[in-house]
Amino acid sequence: MMYLKEQIRAFIVESFLFGDTTRALSDDDSLIENDVVDSTGILELVSFVEDTFAVTVADVEILPTNFDSIARVAAFVAGKSAVSAPLAVAS
């Protein structure tokens, strides 16, 4: 999960904070309330998630509960990845 958070944070810092690593942004800080992203930014974040982690995000999943913080995005990706992963076959 930590690696997911690091990738998501790197994308956010580069794309929305323009490389400003001095701005404190914890894993649980609201990206919307802290004016890091707007509605267009959320769509960019969704596109990043789909492209980087090979998951599909349905329109009904584009909610603050899934995309309003680094921790929420990471949890969403982890959940989607677990669902799409093939089940191991016991021998």
What would you say this structure looks like, in words?
The chain is built from 4 helices and no strands. 53% of the residues lie in helices and 0% in strands. The chain is globular, with a radius of gyration of 14 Å. The chain has a single domain, classed as ACP-like (Non-ribosomal Peptide Synthetase Peptidyl Carrier Protein, Chain A), CATH 1.10.1200. Helix 1 crosses helix 4.
Task: Give helix and strand order, one letter per element, not per position.
Answer: HHHH
Work out the strand percent: under 5%
Coarse morphology:
globular
The CATH C-level name is Mainly Alpha
Secondary structure category: mainly alpha
Kindly, what is the distance between the CA atoms of the first and last residues, rounded to a whole number of angstroms? 29 Å
Please give the share of residues in helix: 40-55%
Question: Averaged pLDDT, please?
Answer: 90
- The CATH topology is Non-ribosomal Peptide Synthetase Peptidyl Carrier Protein, Chain A
User: Would you report the number of β strands?
Assistant: 0
Sketch the major β-sheet.
none
Counting copies of identical and different chains, the oligomeric state is single chain
Overall number of structural domains: 1
Q: Could you state the CATH homologous superfamily? A: ACP-like
Architecture (CATH level 2) name? Orthogonal Bundle
Radius of gyration from the alpha-carbon trace, in angstroms: 14 Å
Number of helical stretches of at least 4 residues: 4
